[in-house]
Amino acid sequence: MLDNVFVPWERVFCYRNLQLCRDQWWRTPSHSYGNHQAQVRYSAKLRFLMGLTKRMCEITGNDANPAVQIMLGEMAAYATIVDSMVQAQETQATIDPEGVVWPAKTALYAVMALQSEINPRLMNTARELAGGSIIMLPSTVKDFDNPEIAADMERYIASPGFKSRLRTAILKLVWDFVGSEFAGRHEQYEKFYGGASFLVKQNMARAYDFAGATKMVDRALSLPEP
Q1: pLDDT at 226 over 80
Q2: Lowest mean per-residue pLDDT among 107-111, 175-179, 197-201
Q3: Which CATH class is domain 29-220?
Q4: Where do the domains of the chain lie?
Q5: 112-124 pLDDT per residue, tens
Q6: Which residues contact 12 (CB under 8 A, 6 or more apart)?
Q7: How many CB atoms neighbour CB 160 within 10 A?
Q8: HSE of 12 in the Cβ direction (CA atoms, 13 Å)?
Q9: H-assigned helices in the chain
Q10: Rounded CA gap, 219 and 217, in Å?
Q11: How crowded is the C-beta side of 43, counted as CA atoms within 13 Å?
Q12: Are 166 and 217 a contacting pair, CB within 8 Å?
C-alpha cells in the first residue's frame, strides 16, 4: 500500500484504463513469462524431490523392492511430464512481428492445469515411502554432541552406507519437504500460485486448438467445413 506518495506523471504507465490493464498481460507475453519461470522452478523442485526420495529409500533399505520401484517409477513419470512440458514451452515457442518470443501457451497451461493434481500425488507418495523413518529421529543435531547418548545414536540410528549424522540429516530434510509447517505452506502454494484450478483450466480451453481437432472429426465424417 502506498499512502501519500508523490508519483510524477512521466512515471505512470496506466491510469484508470481497464483495457490497458488487461492487455498488458494478454497482448504481451507477460502472463506466459511469469508462469513459464514458475514452471522452470517447479520442474527443478520435482527433480530435487526425486533425488531426496531416492536417497530416503536407499536409507530405509527398500530401494530394490519391486513395489517401491513401481512407486518411484510413477513419481519419475510425473516429474518427467512436467520437465518435458517446460521444454515444449520453449521448443514450440513463437516469435511475433516485433521479435518477441512467446512460450507455447498450450504446453504452459496444460502443465499448470494438472499441477494441482500432480503435486499432492507426488507428495503423498513420498510420505508413504517415508513411513515412520521421519518420525523416529533425534530432536536436534545437538543431541550428537551429548556424550551420554552420542554412542548409542551412532550405533542404533544408522543404516548400511549411511552413518547416523548423514542418515538423520537426510531424513530431517525429507520431513522439511513433506511434513513440516514449511512443507504445508509449499503444498498450498503449488496448488494455488496460478490461481484457482478452474481458472487455469479455462485458460487451457481458450488456448487449445479445438478448431483443428473438430476439423479432424468433420473429415472423418466427410462433412463440409462450417
Answers
A1: no
A2: 197-201
A3: mainly alpha
A4: 29-220
A5: 999 999 999 999 9
A6: none
A7: 7
A8: 9
A9: 18-26, 30-60, 66-91, 105-130, 150-156, 164-178, 181-192, 197-207, 210-220
A10: 5
A11: 19
A12: no
Adjacent-strand bridge partners of 159? 162
Distance CA 115, CA 109 (A): 10
Give the pLDDT mean for 164-169. Answer: 92
C-alpha cell at 117: 493434481
d(Cα 66, Cα 74) in Å, to the nearest integer? 12
The pLDDT, as a whole number, for residue 20 is 92
200/48 Cα distance (integer angstroms): 25
C-alpha dist (Å) from residue 62 to 16, 75, 133: 61, 16, 12
Reported as a single tens digit per residue, the pLDDT across 135-153 is 888 888 888 899 888 888 8
| CA-CA-CA-CA torsion sign (191, 193, 196, 198) | negative
Given the DSSP bridges, would you call strands 101-102 and 94-95 parallel, antiparallel or unpaired? Answer: antiparallel
Tell me how far apart the alpha carbons of residues 55 and 49 are, in angstroms, rounded to a whole number: 10
User: What cell does 121 get?
Assistant: 500425488
**Residues 6 or more apart in contact with residue 83 via CB below 8 angstroms:** 43, 46, 47
pLDDT at 225: 65
Q: Is 104 left (phi over 0), alpha (psi -120 to 50) or beta?
A: beta
Cell, residue 4: 501519500
